[in-house]
Amino acid sequence: MPTLSHASIFFFFFSLLFPSLHFANSQSFIGINYGQVANNLPPPEATAKLLKSTSIEKVRLYGADPGIIKALANTGIGIVIGAANGDIPALASDPNFAAQWVNSNVIAYYPASKIILITVGNEVMSSTDKNLMSQLLPAMQNVQNVLNAASLGGKIKVSTVHSMAVLTQSDPPSSGAFDPATSDTMRGLLEFQRNTGSPFAINPYPFFAYQSDPRPETLAYCLFQPNSGRVDSGNNIKYMNMFDAQVDAVRSALNAMGFKEVEIVVAETGWPYSGDANEVGPSIENAKAYNGNLIAHLRSMVGTPLMPGKSVDTYIFALYDENLKPGPGSERAFGLFKPDLSMTYDVSLSKSSPTPSTPETPVNPSPNPTASSGWCVPKAGISDAQLQTNLDYACGQGIDCTPIQPGGACFEPNTVASHAAYAMNLLYQSSGKNPWNCDFTQTAMLTSNNPSYNACTFPGS
Which reaction equations make up its catalytic activity (predicted)? Predict the structure, then answer.
């Protein structure tokens, strides 16, 4: 299995050199969290307009604010709404309350407002409230019954959101396992989700993993930057970033319990750009690296080692800062956008970025440019980490990387070097075939030798 992980700071360096290669067409797997613990947020209508200008296609609300739900009507943006933990007892015990909740928060706005998922409770299974845990499944079932009665059961899913604390084991990823103390309750939830086709929603935060292990190599691993990787002793897969490792730990736990059919959705993940003086990790540079490289990783469609060839639906935390949130300073500094709708930092989400085109003048051309023909391949001796960076960047630019995904003509040999060579050449061929399009921070070269093999054809002359 190759090291299927992923974009690095090269994404930003290269995009600075080639701003015209930035693109942000809508992608269904990119969502964002819209928290409201603040007193300075822009009007919902302004937020809806902002979202329409980005490639964000889904928004997760923690409640069911009618103003926001209405503002998102007829935008095509998918909406996740939430029932609070405090609503769970009534939803579980009173079908009439469940009907009233669904009628008021869903049916009143659907289908103009594209509600796609209802999350019942947040991180209930990692709480200490055993009574609330026992009421979670009945609450979800009652909400589902109301949706079914309204013929919406197949259109709007019902789930609940978990923290990574639901796993008692997550390292290595292949050992991922749920807490045995709550396994009966979890099994009931998963049976419901398998039967209804709803996703298992999880909140992985490499940021917190870094805070507990603040070494430079851990930071690179968490930020999708070049690093030596970590080998899973259970299956010998090398992981190149913490996000994939955390998501695959959840995949392993689901598989171990017999629920391979249940899909995963990342309900929250993000990195703060500021924090208190004693906090390790928050900075503009780190936040931009994490979120930008995460987006590039999702766009590359390489997936995770245990779920290759697809991108898990991922809701980035967060749309705006929430200035009234308690806790350390970082809790109030996750926003990608400011209340005045300007970007806190740029992670290439704007639709206004032009589609790929050739730069008007060479920028950082190769030292010895050759004729604009042939094929672009990696130089000898380039590390797998750098090749993975090149692979992720190239596939994140909108080229067709399906030939190097499982079942594709160029999937074998299943190595990062082979996959990177194909993707780098395809980006070169698609970007004008100028010498500077085959630079990749001086890790690539032009060749007149056709690298095609067997049924795998490398485009080129």
Answer: Hydrolysis of (1->3)-beta-D-glucosidic linkages in (1->3)-beta-D-glucans
